[in-house]
Write a structure and sequence with these properties.
Chain A is an all-alpha fold. Chain A contains 17 helices and no strands. Chain B is an alpha+beta fold. Chain B is built from three helices and six strands. Classes of the chains: A mainly alpha, B alpha+beta. Chains A and B meet through loops of A and helix 3 of B.
Chain lengths: 392, 115
């Protein structure tokens, strides 16, 4: 039993040994100490089986329930917290392996770490159950056939691998968060699962600044969940949200994590985004918002993460800090940016600055442009309302 | 231990533009690679230029036709390959990362074993 850790296996090996004995002894005669011979053969067979199984388990963990303990073949089965948590880290690193397609990484993470059914994962991503089942099966096959190992990455590999995991968790959160509060339960569920995963990662990797940064970002963003949509289903801007209904304990937890996350030099992009969210969350009212601080953070973020969307957000913050004319100036270079050519927030931001400057006709056409680029019904309604407010 | 094919693709025109200097760099890279990973290599070859390729294709009626050129006209052509032994994909990737592949990429694929 000790070697195989499982009664069935031990039985098989014993039977095997007898079968070998019967065939050998009939040709070579019975050995001097048949008992010892049988035990040795059975033991060797058992070791073979376990080694083969260990190899299989290394490559097919998703098909096998009980993971092998880290200590190896002959260790007694351990069921304590360390082993369990280690397995979750192994599992999430395997699910988020770069050799898997990003959509497969997300699907596997939800299915295997969060325990969602295939149907629930399918609903979350608006595909049919059979499509999602096929996606998950293909991913498992890739893991098995290509030999994606089931292990925690080495210290050298960890930064890159953790980054991939964080991207998946972030995607999970934004997918759950962007659906308005009135939508199906599965969307809110996604945001919560993402936060659970971030919390787990932070517990497993407490010194990792990027993990702390993502966890902070999720907490601080989620703190506003109750106030993002009005009672009538209308989108509420930060400006209009009732800050008393923001989740203070999430904010406190998030702010503390931001301090930890910003210790890394240079700071990671999740940490910086979290810091920006923290500035918003700490302002008692909209007018108290420290736009100077926000622009300073965007200055760093745009360096660390040269994305046109970040540049757009920074331009808006400049407009908030220095006034709408400065905002328009900051937006101008982005009009030529090909990646923003179908992005609704660019004309929407321009429209808003034009509106504040009283340039209503120009604001009107900018809102029309934004509407043409928006599919989300709640956002469309917001833009239409803005348009209506412009006409006398 | 599992075996992986490490397929080396490269844009021949771009590489040619790199002249003797780039070529000697690539050679040195392969020699260093072989030295570091010798015991894991199970074979491999550099291939002649894609201009020397010939394709045999079977048509709808089952007839075979022979034509000049590679199977697929791609910017990066198959330039060579190594067969490597590795415990798992991560090891195979770590090995593949050491193979020189300027103006191109490396594909890592597990070998199929028939029992």
């Amino acid at each position: 039993m000790r070697v195989t850790r499982d009664i069935d296996s031990a039985e098989e090996c014993a039977q095997d040994a007898f079968a070998v004995a019967l065939s050998r002894w009939s040709t070579e005669g019975v050995p001097d100490r048949p008992g010892a011979w049988l035990t040795t053969v059975a033991r060797r067979r058992a070791l073979d089986v376990v080694r083969r199984e260990a190899g299989l388990r290394r490559r097919l963990p998703l098909l096998v329930d009980a993971p092998l303990s880290a200590a190896g073949v002959e260790a007694p089965p351990e069921v304590d917290d360390d082993v369990i948590e280690d397995d979750r880290l192994r599992l999430i690193c395997t699910c988020c392996h770069p050799a898997l397609a990003p959509e497969a990484q997300v699907a596997l993470t939800l299915r295997l770490l969060c325990g969602l059914t295939t149907a629930e994962v399918a609903r979350a991503f608006l595909v049919s159950e059979s499509t999602m089942a096929a996606r998950i099966t293909r991913a498992k096959q890739k893991i098995a056939v290509a030999g994606i190992p089931y292990r925690v990455p080495t210290a050298g590999e960890l930064p890159e691998r953790v980054a991939a995991v964080l991207d998946v968790v972030h995607l999970l959160f934004t997918t759950g968060h962007t659906a308005p509060a009135g939508q199906s339960l599965s969307r809110r569920d996604l945001a919560e699962r993402a936060i659970d995963l971030a919390r787990m990662l932070h517990a497993l990797l407490p010194d990792n600044a990027d993990v702390a940064g993502l966890f902070a970002l999720l907490l601080l963003t989620d703190a506003r969940r109750e106030t993002r949509v009005g009672a009538d289903g209308r989108l509420l801007l930060l400006e209009e949200q009732d800050r008393h209904r923001w989740d203070r304990s999430s904010i406190d937890e998030g702010v503390a994590l931001v301090r930890v996350a910003l210790r890394r030099r240079p700071p990671g992009r999740y940490a910086l985004q979290a810091a920006i969210a923290a500035v918003h969350c700490e302002a008692p009212t909209w007018t108290d918002t420290d736009w100077r601080e926000i622009v300073a953070l965007y200055d760093i973020l745009v360096d660390v993460w040269p994305s046109p969307v970040v540049a757009l957000n920074r331009a808006v913050a400049i407009g908030m800090r220095d006034g709408p004319a400065a905002g328009l100036d900051a937006l101008r270079p982005l009009e030529a940016e090909p990646q923003l050519s179908s992005y609704a927030y660019l004309p929407a931001s321009r429209a808003d600055f034009l509106r504040r400057l009283g340039r209503l006709a120009e604001a009107s056409s900018a809102y029309e442009e934004a509407l043409a680029r928006t599919d989300n019904e709640v956002e469309r309604e917001f833009l239409r309302a803005r348009l209506r407010s412009l006409s006398p | 231990m599992p075996e992986y094919a490490v397929l080396i693709y490269g844009d021949e025109a771009a590489i040619a533009k790199g002249g003797d200097e780039l070529e000697s760099q690539i050679m040195k890279g392969h020699m260093a690679f072989a030295e570091s990973n010798g015991e894991k290599l199970r074979g491999g070859h550099a291939l002649q230029s894609v201009s020397t390729a010939t394709t045999v294709r079977s048509g709808a009626d089952g007839a075979l036709t022979v034509t000049d050129g590679p199977f697929a006209e791609t910017k990066e052509a198959l330039g060579g390959f190594y067969m490597v032994e590795a415990a798992d994909l991560d090891e195979a990737i770590a090995i593949a990362k050491q193979v020189p592949a300027p103006h191109g990429a490396i594909e890592v694929r597990p070998v199929r074993v028939f029992d």
